[in-house]
Design goal:
Strand content: 15-25%
Helix content: 40-55%
Structural class: alpha/beta
Order of helices and strands: HEHEHEEH
Number of strands: 4
Strand order of the largest sheet: 1-2-3-4
Number of helices: 4
Shape: globular
Distance between the termini: 13 Å
Length: 137
């Protein structure tokens, strides 16, 4: 069940980010996508498929896109954890969107970095609300 919920979450993020491409201009290639699955929430095949979808969305949106699935935050606030992960994966001040999902979708947050913060901050809450709503369907 957890795998199904988390796979749905990934699909929802990729779909919402791709839909945002219709609002904002496309950008040249050169951005990265990252999937870190510490909690073994999705299969390797699903991880590869998701990484491909996110790579396409990253290039269309002009920013790096990453997702981490974790079981524990080791006392760290989820937003602080997401910011740190985004910086570790993509570098400080990079144009990036990063989603962290804790546990069995108990908690999730979306953080933005660099120029992605300026471009997509107005969509951030809507994207997270849509992802959470899709998980409940």
């Amino acid at each position: 069940m957890a795998c199904k919920i988390k796979k749905l979450l990934c699909t929802a993020l990729a779909a919402v980010m791709t839909a945002a491409c219709m609002i904002f201009p496309s950008y040249a290639d050169g951005y990265a996508a990252s999937v870190i699955d510490v909690s073994d929430a999705i299969t390797m095949d699903d991880e590869m498929e998701l990484r491909g979808q996110l790579m396409n969305a990253a290039n269309d949106l002009g920013c790096n896109i990453g997702i981490s699935f974790v079981d524990e935050l080791y006392g760290e606030d989820i937003t602080d954890y997401a910011d740190r992960q985004m910086e570790d994966v993509f570098g400080s001040d990079s144009a990036s969107v990063y989603l962290v999902v804790k546990g069995d979708c108990d908690e999730a947050t979306l953080v933005l970095g660099g120029s992605a913060k300026d471009r997509y901050s107005s969509l951030k809450d809507d994207i997270l609300v849509q992802i959470m709503a899709d998980m409940k369907d």
